[in-house]
Design a protein that fits this description.
Layout (H helix, E strand, L loop, with lengths): L2 H21 L17 H26 L3 H15 L7 H15 L1 H16 L5 H19 L2 H10 L13 H40 L7 H15 L2 H11 L3
Helix pairs in contact: 3-4, 3-8, 5-6, 6-8, 7-8, 8-9
Length: 250
């Protein structure tokens, strides 16, 4: 059946259902979106809060990426796949899922602290929304400070022309987050280099053997790939990678 006929039949059924509901006195739902002038400052504040909440929900994936352990973990896993030469194995969905659950594991103390001291008291009405938000940010700040290099932090303090802070609380969150990101990128690339090195040696050895045998037309990657895969299996590579990633945050 062609698409246009399906649309006509669906439209006919909707009209028939609406007529039957109207004839039997069934109340049909109505939804309206109104744009009107605010009558009090509270209405303006509520509208701004809703707008801010929608904005935060839109940016939530980016926020999760930049203020948690996700950046380092997903980059290291991408380096691992590249060094093995397995192309799209594991697929991107598996890499991201593994990075996400490892992130939850690493961030579990932070998540538990936020839930205990901020989220649950806020649900019980013991603290205000602003206090809950401040406690949440403090937990994330403590985590980021532990993973941020002092020279990266000093760089953004100088770039922001801020006065030299005397304590951690004096460092603005707008300075801490980019410092944390570039520190995570440097650490991830360092771990990626360590992962690349043994597989690179295998590629060089295989290429040298093929050249000495005069097999110039045979791509070395075809021969080295099984050896790299065998090495990764023999050393229990996934176990080592997961343990190294978790320990790198301690």
């Amino acid at each position: 059946m062609k698409l246009k006929y399906k649309i006509v039949i669906l439209f006919t059924l909707l009209i028939s259902f609406s007529y039957q509901a109207y004839s039997q006195g069934i109340a049909l739902p109505n939804f309206s979106l109104q744009w009107k002038e605010a009558q009090s400052p509270k209405e303006v504040a509520l509208a701004l809060q809703i707008l801010l909440l929608l904005t935060i929900l839109t940016l939530a994936p980016a926020i999760v990426i930049v203020v948690t352990a996700f950046t380092r973990i997903v980059i290291v896993l991408a380096f691992l796949r590249q060094s093995l030469g397995t192309q799209q194995i594991p697929p991107n969905q598996i890499i991201i899922a593994l990075a996400l659950f490892l992130t939850f594991f690493v961030m579990s103390p932070v998540i538990e602290g936020i839930n205990k001291d901020a989220f649950q008291p806020y649900l019980k009405g013991e603290i205000s929304q602003q206090v809950a938000l401040d406690k949440t940010v403090n937990y994330l700040r403590d985590f980021m400070f532990k993973q941020t290099r002092p020279n990266d932090l000093a760089l953004f303090i100088n770039l922001s022309h801020s006065p030299k802070p005397n304590k951690r609380e004096d460092v603005a969150i707008s300075v801490l987050i980019p410092s944390f990101i570039i520190s995570e990128l440097k650490t991830a690339f360092q771990l990626g280099f360590v992962i690349f090195l043994p597989f690179l040696i295998i590629d060089l050895v295989v290429a040298s053997i093929l050249i000495s045998m005069g097999m110039l037309l045979l791509p070395p990657i075809v021969i080295s790939f099984p050896f790299k895969l065998l090495l990764f299996i023999m050393v229990d590579g996934w176990h080592l990678i997961a343990r190294s990633l978790v320990y790198s945050f301690h």
